[in-house]
Protein: Phosphonate transport system ATP-binding protein
Amino acid sequence: MIEIKGLAKSYGDRRVLKQVDLSVRAGEFLVVLGPSGAGKSTLLRCVNGLVKSDRGEIAIDGRTVRTADLGRREERRPTAMIFQHHNLVKRLSVLKNVLVGRMAGMSSLMALFQLFPARDVEQALACLRRVELEHKAQVRGDQISGGEQQRVGIARALAQEPAVILADEPVASLDPKTARIVLGYLKRICKETDIAVICNLHQVDYAVEFGERVVGLSDGAVVFDGPPDRLSTEIVHRIYPGLEDPGIARVLRFQGGSHAAADQPLAAGA
Ligand SMILES: Nc1ncnc2c1ncn2[C@@H]1O[C@H](COP(=O)(O)OP(=O)(O)OP(=O)(O)O)[C@@H](O)[C@H]1O
Structure:
């Protein structure tokens, strides 16, 4: 359970997060939608302690998140990140990339020489099995496709045994078919393991298709929080002010999202 209360963050004069309140259940697949600069990445960085908020509280399973805990490898952290560009170590095998997720708790010497206990290797292989990549365990990280790299990113996050996986635009650099496959794995793992997922996305159609709950962030404030079938063109415009994209009406109609509003063309030619 993640509890965010009154979260605020500014960079200089720019208020990037304004009083964000959010709670996320174990096993919930939450999509955060919002335009560029809305504060989505900053929100995730505050949750994993990478960025110190100015005000507010974040607790994961009752334990307050503190930036000071970040550098302490001996402690297993409750958050795992998935990045847009996968961030794999290219010269390492797929398996070793996943084992990076097990490094918390290992001695510095063991970590330095990559001496992983057999049970960690077993666990990493099990994580690779969940994304159907066990057969690529010994392949180098740069010799697999972008979609496979992101599946390894998911396995690495899973290997950390986190309470929450924070995915920052995990499919932004993938083609639509691969993006759907990757989101499918992420959602399935969320449901099967009871790990909460907070997934920043740009694409309304993926949010409608995969999100169990959608939070719309606009200019640092939550402007929508609800199930994807409540997204309407009006709400999408609230999240993306000034957006002129008649395609959104089609997406909502096609996906069976809401409904009365979606049936109104947004603009000529919609
Ligand atoms: N370290 C930083 N120093 C100063 N300003 C920052 C820093 N990180 C982010 N910002 C600013 O904060 C605002 C929100 O950034 P953030 O990356 O959280 O938005 P976002 O919604 O994730 O955008 P995108 O979808 O483009 O990644 C932006 O104006 C950005 O320039």
The two ends are 41 Å apart (CA to CA). Residues 11, 14, 16, 34, 36-42 surround adenosine-5'-triphosphate (CB under 6 Å).
